[in-house]
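Assess this today:

___
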Amino acid sequence: MKRILLPGVIACALAATCAYGQEASNSAPSVPLIGLKDAYAGKFLIGTAGDVPRGYSAVELANIKDNYNIITPENCMKPQSLHPSEDQYTWGTADAMVKWCQENNIKVWAHNLCWHTQTGRWMLQGTNGQPITRDLAIEHLKSHILAVAGHFKGQVLGWDVVNEAIDDRANNEPANLRNDAWYRAIGPDFLTMAFKWAHEADPDAQLYYNDYNIEQGAVANSGKHAASMALLKQMIKDGAPINGVGIQGHWHLDTKIEDVEKAISDYESLGLKISISELDVTATGENSGAFNVRGGGGAPITEEALKKQADIYRQLFEIFNRHAKSISRVTLWGLSDTRSWRRGQAALLFDGQLKPKPAFQAVIDVGLGKTAAK
């Protein structure tokens, strides 16, 4: 049921402490007076990630319906999950997710069509384990994209077409492409090919390139950000039907906020939309945005760290607000601190019991135009 919020109720929401139940698995939550999606209505979509509804409790699903208007599947649409062998497609979990989202008026952002990992070996290796020919690699990638994007045609808002193709280390090429199996098998033009096939399969879907750390070096015009600009410019020149770029946003308490805003401005200058596609902000430990948490994972989270985390989230959403005309969506990568690939680092807006953290209220306040306390 949709709640109608009167101005006085919204004002009370700013002052009230909103809390969910102590046990997410079996207790009815105390529902916040306003959800994240409502605070940003008319600006951009607010999303979460997960292979819903399978394995989610009623309380978790209620939290999703209250706070989010778009969902990214965390794993069930990745190539290995959907297409484990050449003649086998496993649609069940992904179809169930799309159906649930349709029933609950929630959009789906599909993730992803081409990646160097979580991809079946058959796509790039022969039965003898040796690399396949370029022509066969092209055939495999094309047939996969046409089949998968075609299957979900008209049911998803868009796709992360190519995921994480830029290397973390310099390789003396402007676009700094990762020397992965797709690059070795086809060459750098596999990206533009993938976008053209995705557009052929679903002409109305929005098509994005998605990567982590691509905001780093934006102010200095260096590093992975400079490589991303070179790549995107080349793809546009080559005729790739690309609509936008996803900045994953796996950040931490010492993230350089100025790089984030400069990166958004740079992508705007290319005529692209921007999504913050996998947002989280760790409150403890170190993490570059890649796997393997280093230092502090699982340690107790101090009140000071939670306050600083809230301030980082506040600053980030202030940036997103300033660029709302070009920001298409902001997606939190997980539902709670325990439903997160960064479990143990308290990276999201809700704790493990789905109780909102200080960062939740900071994000709500920005959406409603409330300035931070001095």
The two ends are 37 Å apart (CA to CA). Residues 303-322 form the longest helix (20 residues).
